[in-house]
What does this fold into?
Amino acid sequence: MSTERWQQLDRVFIEAIQRPAAERAGFIEDACRTDAALKTEALALLAASDDSSEFMATSALEYLAKAVAAAGWSLKAGERVGAYTVLKRLGAGASGEVWRARDERLGRDVAIKIVLPHTSSDSERLRRFAEEARLAGSLNHPNLLTVHDVGEHAGLPILVTECLDGQSLRGRLEAGPLPVGRAIKVTFGLARGLAAAHARGVVHRDVKPENVFLLTDGGVKVLDFGLAKLLPAVASQPAAQRLTIEGLILGTPGYMAPEQVRGEPAGTQADLFAVGVIAYEMLAGSNPFKRASIVETLHATLTADAPDLTATVPGIPPALAKLVMRLLEKDPQARFLSAQDLAWALEQLVDVSAGVRTLSRDTPSRRRASWRGWATATAVLAAGVLGAGIYSTRGTGGGEVEATRLTQFTWALPQGLVLNSPPVVSPDGQRIVFAARAGAEESRLFVRELAALEPVVVAGTEGAKQPFWSPDGQALGFFARGKLMKLALKGGAPVALADAMDGRGGTWSGRGIIVYQPDLVGSALFKVPGTGGPAEPVTRLDGTQADLSHRWPVFLPDGIHFLYFVRSVNEKRRGVYVGRVDAPAAMPGAPLLLSESEPVWVPDASDARFGDLLTVNQRRIEVRRLDAERLMLIGDARALEWRAGAQTPYHSSLVSASQTTLAFASDRVPFGQRLASVDRTGDHLQLQEAEAQGWVRLSPDGRRLARQRIVEGPENPDIWVDDLDRGTRLRISSAPTPDIYPVWSPDGNRLAYVTGNPPGRVGQRAINIAAADGSGVVETFPCPGGPDTYCEPTDWLADRLFVTVRSARGGDIWGVATDKSHAAQPLLAAPYSEHDGRVSPDGGWLAYVSDESGRPEVSVRSLVGSARRIVLSPDGGNQPVWRKDGGELFFVDPEGKLRALPVSRTNMLDSRFGLPVVLPVPPIGFGHWGTQYDVSPDGRRIYFMQRNRDAPPSSVTVVLGWRSLLK
Amino acid sequence: MDQCASRDHELTALLRSWSDGDGRAFDQLIPIVYDQLHRMALRYLAGERSDVSLQPTALVNEVCLRLLGWDQARWENRGHFFGVSAQMMRRVLVDIARKRRAERRGGAHAVRVPLEDVEIAADAACGNLVALDEALERLAVADPRKARVVELRFFGGLSLEETADAVGISMRTVQNDWTFARAWLYRALTDSRQP
It folds into this structure.
């Protein structure tokens, strides 16, 4: 169409449309009297305009969103949903979509169901979905769909379940009836699954072949548990498939029980009726009540008796036919008492019926082996990564059956929470306590009742870690804010029992004694009465064996002996040892077991003298029998198939167990740090190598970087120097003990650092001075302040080292002469903690951290004038660092952010400290252990340690009946 | 510097390249926009609206502002910003519709999943959106201004007033263009004997 014609059309159409509707066509007729083609066009456009009142009435986005709402579009491939990576969409339904996703942590695929709302009034339905899904999730049973996780994604509820391989029973039935043996097994699986659900008060109400899934491995699953009654009356569903009354699904015609048809409340007996119909259908190949129309089907359900199975299915065991007919009784009370009764009846049928032997075609030669074979197949699964269960059934005298049940399930911690200590099972196996934190928040304790779905936060446990149970399970011990604490679960405030700066493990005996380890570094074990009282040592570090610490104690049943872990740089030393609380503190004797992990002890129920000793080796959970009276291991280790997070220098292995319950997390708690550098403006972030390392210190010229690195053996850091210009690296120390905290001499030619536990000096550490060119140690002298202290050089000015001396009462700042005298004197030795002293380049001021006010604060004192302390950090802070010219002081605030404040001086005595501003660099972290960054001499570039960001564990796997695997 | 900041820089650069006619920049933009839109559509679906009807303009602008940043210096004027937003929304929405349509034609799945499966028939909306986009291309040849009005109104979610502002014409003209274009497009989509 030419531009001219187009404009004519536009004009005529617009003029027409501005007239009353009735006059428009007439106007066009008149206006185009001489131009028939134009008239046709304009009239067509007018007609289109009349018809298009709804067309483009909403924006494209809303248009698309409606399409999405109608057909679903919730996730996309590659997207992360919680711990899962979405792979592909498997299907869409009326209420939502199902996607296949990968759980990388556990190396398995899961199905994620996401529920899409249809109308705004759906919020109630969504709420109930979540509720029911949680309930279904609590029904951990091999015959029920395993729910791994219930959560929310973008505000929509999601359900994460196992991903099943197999087909629905409906699909199988299309190929004809099932062999009798198989039909019994499927019915048995149905009965067991429903029994478990009924025991929890959950009635399915919509059992039908579509909701029964046959796994490739022979297992049977009941699906869509508890969801059926939540389904809305969706118009898009064919009426023939579901009957709805006032939005409530009553069931599916043909499978509904008579009482459901009559609209009476449907109880567990209704589910049994449906099982009967399904059993009948599997055997006979057709539904006994199915008719041409819904009304006829419902009528038949109420009035017709199913045709006798013995007539329809030749060779069917009479007992089986009778059982199925009994399920189809019109009177609910005439069916079976319960699904459990049905399961037992089926079991006996298999065991005692002579007819089954010939009918179990899939296992023709082994009469009972068909059940055993099934159990074994499932057991293999259970031991593997897939959650599943075993039933090992064995008949006893009176025909009763005792079932040993093994169940594994994994639950995700509430959104955002990550574990930082093992999930610790209570003595009765019913509860699990763990320390977890969200983001940068303090860690807190949570208790999950296994029967409940959500862990409950334990009030008053801010900062808590390393929890352990009292023997009666009524109280918890833990470490928080530098103390060993106890807390009664029935209420009451936490009570501090002893100082414990950074505890590593506790255990509580039946005699009321707590053995614990009070500090991460260089500590043996102590005991304290659970009711309070003085703390006394129960072990002593053996310096000749390079003991680093004694940790993770666990009491044996006599309440006198305990097992504990000796951490040592000596491989032949690391392992599990036995100590006792009724004798003076002793050094470790012979090891019970050399091990990379601490012990977990589980006494036998029948005789507590014996039990299982669990350790984690190469992430594998190993189990050994222990005679706790003779303190001897019996037999060899057996490894469970699961992988648990291994021990790190800071955390124990993430496994614990009681007689019934094993709990573990698969990933270890991430530790270690990466070296990074960034401009103070936040630009040019560079990540150096990823490895455990720490405490960076720039040389005075800013061209070399000293730090500790761990390159060989576990946990034995040495001092290294990087040449930042050349990119080369030089090893400064290589002692068999840890060498840490390097500081440069003012001329940049030497490095002072602390070296740990040299042989022969128990608990003592020394300061080494080594040449910065790697040619070796020049001098060694003891840490100042006595034999039981631990020290860290923090700065070096002229011929004086500034050293933090740590003892049980906190830190003090000392000066130590670097000349031959090594004369040492305390500079700041108040009763509160003072540490990390850094001297201003002109020697006029000492910046340091003081907790005089009750929190760490960056403070300065004049070294030449008044002794007045000036607090520089307005909200608390630590890790002070001077710029090389002294014109600026950096520190870290409690949020971990780096701050800088200007320092102006007229002379040595008169400095003015400005207000600190936050620098836009990544958070440094508010670690209380040393300075985690350094600043280039010009103050422009920050070198810092970035925490290892590997995903911390956020889920816990629980195995009930785990000991049955050892039999 | 956090990831968001760097992403914003990246986006700005991509957007500029795209405005300068670099088609590849758009391909890089798509997944980012898609992701953002996806989240918003989900929120929309999740019923944050209940009684309050969806505000398309707000939504589109939120997407674009979040992605591009509202920076006076970067945009000549509001009209420029809206124009770019609407173009982007059009490209994205049509792209999504096209993908969804293709997805729906996809094959059967090998693994069954537990769910009360009721397959929904391929939604007409997606097909329509793709066809509409094609028709809009034809309209743009005959009458670029009307096509632009449609783009701003329908894809950009702008009101009459905002559209007038963005195009630099009177509201009355916008109304006329909109009425005409709607009728024309409707006819193009429903009548096989298209003009």
Observations:
- The mean pLDDT of chain A is 79.
- Chain A touches chain B through 84 residues (CB under 8 Å).
- Chain A is about 20% helix and 35% strand.
